[in-house]
């Protein structure tokens, strides 16, 4: 599985922590930065990750900002993206199983690095359950038309 990951300045530290996790898990990834501590606009960093997922250049994306909120709002504007803002392990499992989320957003100012790693690990390893959830995903897709 290939992962696309980015943050804004508010998520730089946690992005680096999650990149360590991806290395620990032996995952293939592309880190879209930012590679400085300068203040940046989160939509500019959400877009390349969302686009990579939609184009099939990445299987899933991870976005981090101060709260995760701006990143998730921006990513969900891209057709085909189902970005879940998650700050607990239960929701990480549920959003993969039920929503087939293809992008995970987290906030560096909300969760500590240890919990964020567990959330990301859970989200990366849980499978979509399909079944009754298929038609619900289809109804979300229909909203994009
Ligand atoms: C940046 O200060 C902050 O607004 C951003 O990281 C994010 O939390 C926005 O939703």
Q: How would you describe what is shown here?
A:
- It comes from Metaplanococcus flavidus.
- Belongs to the LacAB/RpiB family.
- The protein has helices at residues 12-24, 42-55, 69-75, 89-99, 113-125, 132-143; strands spanning 2-7, 28-31, 60-65, 83-85, 103-107.
- The mean pLDDT is 98.
- Helix 1 crosses helix 5 and helix 4 packs parallel to helix 5 (113-125).
- It is of the alpha/beta class.
- It binds D-ribose.
- D-ribose binds next to helix 3.
Distance between the termini: 29 Å
% residues in beta strands? 15-25%
Total helices: the number is 6
Q: Write out the distinct hetero groups bound to the structure.
A: D-ribose
CATH topology descriptor: Ribose 5-phosphate Isomerase B, Chain: A
CATH class: Alpha Beta
SSE string, helix = H, strand = E? EHEHEHEHEHH
Query: Spans with pLDDT under 50 lasting ≥5 residues?
Result: none
The CATH superfamily turns out to be: Sugar-phosphate isomerase, RpiB/LacA/LacB
Helix content: 40-55%
Mean pLDDT: 98
How many separate domains?
A: 1
Structural class estimated from helices and strands: alpha/beta
3D shape: globular
Largest sheet, spatial ordering of strands: 2-1-3-5-4
Rg (CA only)? 14 Å
Q: How many beta-strand runs?
A: 5
Main β-sheet: number of strands, strand sense, barrel status?
A: 5 strands, parallel
Pfam families: LacAB_rpiB (PF02502)
EC number: 5.3.1.6
Keywords: Isomerase
InterPro entries: RpiB, RpiB_LacA_LacB, RpiB_LacA_LacB_sf, SPI_LacAB/RpiB
């Amino acid at each position: 599985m290939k992962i696309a990951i980015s943050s804004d300045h508010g998520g730089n530290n946690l992005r680096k922590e999650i990149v360590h996790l991806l290395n620990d898990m032996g995952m293939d990834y592309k880190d879209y930065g930012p590679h400085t501590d300068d203040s940046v606009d989160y939509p500019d960093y959400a877009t390349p990750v969302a686009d990579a997922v939609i184009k099939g250049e990445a299987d899933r994306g991870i976005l981090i900002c101060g709260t995760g909120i701006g990143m998730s709002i921006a990513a969900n504007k891209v057709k085909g993206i189902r970005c879940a803002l998650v700050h607990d392990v239960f929701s990480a499992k549920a959003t993969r199983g039920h929503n087939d989320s293809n992008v995970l957003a987290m906030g560096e100012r909300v969760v500590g690095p240890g919990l964020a790693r567990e959330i990301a690990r859970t989200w990366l390893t849980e499978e979509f359950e399909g079944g009754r959830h298929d038609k619900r995903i289809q109804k979300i897709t229909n909203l994009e038309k």
